[in-house]
Design brief:
This is Cytochrome c oxidase assembly protein subunit 15. It comes from Knoellia remsis. Its main location: membrane. GO terms for molecular function: metal ion binding; oxidoreductase activity. Keywords: Cell membrane, Disulfide bond, Heme biosynthesis, Iron, Membrane, Metal-binding, Oxidoreductase, Transmembrane, Transmembrane helix. By secondary structure, the protein is an all-alpha fold. It has one domain. Helix content is about 70%, strand content about 0%. It has eight helices and two strands, in the order ααααβααααβ. The protein has a two-stranded antiparallel ribbon. Helix 1 runs antiparallel to helix 2 and helix 7 runs antiparallel to helix 8. The longest helix has 29 residues.
Length: about 300
């Protein structure tokens, strides 16, 4: 029989939390609250929580709230490992569940390094990219939750599968360039200590846009190929969603560029990046089939 509701609830919570921490981190950056807690692991020397005497004002509460969410992520990640071991104990899902848990620990360390380096753009970018990888892993656990222990059967021609993997690689480049664009723009994460890349924002933005155009072309190619192949309709439907999310992201990205990067659009773009990772993971999972789990 299918996995129980509690199992699905835990895996969905795991995915939602991983997406949520990206949005939360974006809020920290866009409000200039990255150094709201100027030390780590304590918020200020001698206290793990904000204190009234801090000079950081409301920024301390935003940064502390983001740190608190990391604890929630860790708890949900532990529950995810338990759920996978209990109800879907296949090796590939075990590896994914443990990866998320270890990734949360890594993110906590990276967060501390980011604070101690006063929001150096390299550490901030790495922080985001690790989160994107954890979103992909959590999304995989969600979409593959009812698969069995057998070997996957590819539902599309091998060439289509290879192009799909190339699309994922280009998507990773797009995300990476996006972090460089952000690290070259006005939203440094702290108004008093702006740490930026030394790139020209206009040049790096156009480079990012060029990569996006290539990515859109590859997504269209995979979507059309899945429609023309003998794959089930669910495969092309999944890639249609990837295309729609991609186009929406491109639109938001263009509008935020011409409107001088208003914070609300930048935050929307960050959420869209997480949504694109989820959609792309879904598309990749749907390219193959593994027999459904049956249990007595």
């Amino acid at each position: 029989m299918p996995t129980p509701p509690i199992h699905r609830a835990i895996l969905l919570a795991n995915l939602v939390c991983q997406v949520g921490i990206i949005v939360s981190g974006g809020l920290v950056r866009l409000t200039g609250s990255g150094l709201g807690c100027p030390s780590w692991p304590q918020c200020v020397p001698g206290s793990y929580v904000p204190v009234r005497e801090q000079a950081e004002g409301f920024h301390k509460y935003i940064e502390f709230g983001n740190r608190t969410l990391t604890g929630l992520l860790g708890l949900v990640a532990i529950l995810t490992v338990f759920a996978v071991w209990r109800w879907t104990p296949w090796r590939r899902l075990k590896i994914a569940a443990v990866t998320v848990l270890l990734g949360v620990v890594l993110q906590a360390v990276l967060g501390g390094i980011t604070v101690l380096t006063e929001l150096h753009p390299v550490t901030v970018a790495t922080h985001f990219l690790v989160s994107a990888a954890l979103v992909a892993t959590a999304a995989y656990l969600w979409f593959a939750r009812d698969e069995g222990p057998g070997e996957p059967t590819t539902l599309v021609p091998d060439l289509v599968r290879r192009i799909a993997w190339l699309t994922c690689a280009v998507g990773a480049v797009v995300l990476t360039l996006g972090t460089v664009v952000t690290g070259s723009g006005p939203h440094s994460g702290d108004a008093e200590a702006p740490a930026r890349f030394g790139f020209d924002p206009r040049t790096i933005s156009w480079l990012h846009a060029d990569a996006v155009m290539l990515f859109i072309g590859l997504v269209v190619a995979v979507w059309l190929a899945t429609r023309l192949s003998s794959a089930p309709p669910s495969v092309s439907s999944a890639w249609r969603v990837v295309l729609l999310v991609t186009l929406a992201q491109g639109l938001v990205g263009y509008v935020q560029y011409v409107t001088k990067l208003p914070a609300v659009l930048v935050l929307t773009h960050m959420f869209g990046a997480a949504a694109l990772v989820v959609a792309l993971t879904h598309g990749m999972v749907r390219l193959r089939e593994i027999r459904t789990v049956t249990q007595d």
